[in-house]
Amino acid sequence: MKKFTKIILGCMIAFASYMFFTAQAEAVNKNNFISKVHPITNNMNSILVDTTSKYYDIDSLTVKVGTKTYTFDYFDLWITSNEKKQEIEFNQKFTAGQTVKIYANYTTYDDDYNDIQNTVLIDTLKVSDKTPPKTTISNVTVRTTSATVTTESGAKLAATYNGKKVSLKKKSATKYTIALPKPIKGKKLIVKATDKVGNSKAYTKTTTVPSTIKMTGSNTLVSKKKLTGKVSGAKATDYVYFKANSKTYKSKIKSGKYTINFPANLSTPRAVTMYVKDKYNNTLTKKSVRIYKYANFKIGMTTSQAANTVYGKSSDIDRSVYSSFTSEYWMYYTGNKTMMISFYNGKIDAISKW
Questions:
Q1: Are 159 and 176 a contacting pair, CB within 8 Å?
Q2: Residue 106 confidence class, pLDDT cut points 50, 70, 90
Q3: Does residue 303 contact residue 346 with C-beta atoms inside 8 Å?
Q4: Residues 219 and 201 in one domain
Q5: What would the pLDDT profile of 273-294 be if each residue is shown by its tens digit?
Q6: Which of 79, 87, 140, 171 could be a cystine partner for 175, CB 3.0 to 4.6 Å?
Q7: Domain end call among 149, 181, 206
Q8: Any long-range contacts for 177-181 (C-beta under 8 Å, 24+ apart)?
């Protein structure tokens, strides 16, 4: 009877010892190794866990993400600048709404010092949504008076244009329109989209000028008293103008053509920039032309007169001064052709072309 009692007592002690060590192992791994698992969002591809020690008391961690299971040995964990913060890194970002479970795997021993593999659940987390609603805005130009906004169903929108609040008209669960009665070049349409959980983002479109608006114009003799040309993509409310001597000369565009009249006494040579503007004073396009007095070079012209021709003053000039005379050469290059104007004492004495 005493022998049987000793056997029973020995078994009880052994069992108690096993339970003690197991409980201790669980306590170490559940409380002493990992003290906190940080929240997970869908813009992350890693999980951060806080530990109470920089030493590893576990064999590995198992992470279940949805239906997939990943196991990380202790040497797979990244140690951050804080030795008590570990990072579990994945190859891709989490998806909002996923359930993530983190388990610690550790080893305990029985009375005969045989290994016993244990797994305990450390934490269960839900991946929160940190992505703002994906939103698009149609192009906004000086030729458009409305914009279309497409966003996620259930998102709330607020908009401003040129710093002022504008209203949105709902067309469907995901589509809205915004009226822009006065589109101004360079002004911004800003749409802020917010989802049900508070994620928000501001989207911006800047008012531009369509590249389809183009202008042509030719250099002209001052005696013709007008500049002519064409504008493609023009509207009846657009006009062409240029300024000279603090005065503005302009013309309406009719059938894609314009004629700007100016006085014959306009001083020349003159480089002017012509602008196309709309009714909102937006500059749509521009072009530089020259107004000059003489149609071509002639023998005997002075340098001032030569500069007042269609060619203007050359940018390639070679000038030599001697005791009894001065020589000067003006070079012009057009494609594969060259023209040289020779001056003797300030007057043209030769015109060469080749």
A1: no
A2: confident
A3: yes
A4: no
A5: 999 999 999 999 999 999 999 9
A6: 171
A7: 206
A8: 177/146, 177/147, 177/148, 177/149, 178/146, 178/147, 178/148, 178/149, 179/145, 179/146, 180/140, 180/144, 180/145, 180/146, 180/147, 181/145
CA end-to-end span of the chain: 133
Residue linked to tokens 């458009």: 144
Residue 314: CB atoms within 10 Å? 18
CB distance 176 to 157 below 8 Å:
yes
Residue 10: inside a domain, yes or no?
yes
Q: Are residues 44 and 111 in the same domain?
A: yes
* Residue 298 covered by a domain: no
What is the average pLDDT value for the chain, to the nearest integer?
88
Q: Are residues 10 and 111 in the same domain?
A: yes
Identify which has the larger pLDDT, 236 or 28.
Answer: 236
> Which one of 74, 99, 126 terminates a domain?
126
Instruction: Provide the CATH number for the domain around residue 90.
Output: 2.60.40
CB-based contact 76:130 (threshold 8 Å)? no
Residue 170: give the domain boundaries: 136-206
Q: Given this model, what pLDDT does residue 307 score? A: 97
Q: Count how many domains the chain has.
A: 4
Cβ atoms of 64 and 121 closer than 8 Å: no
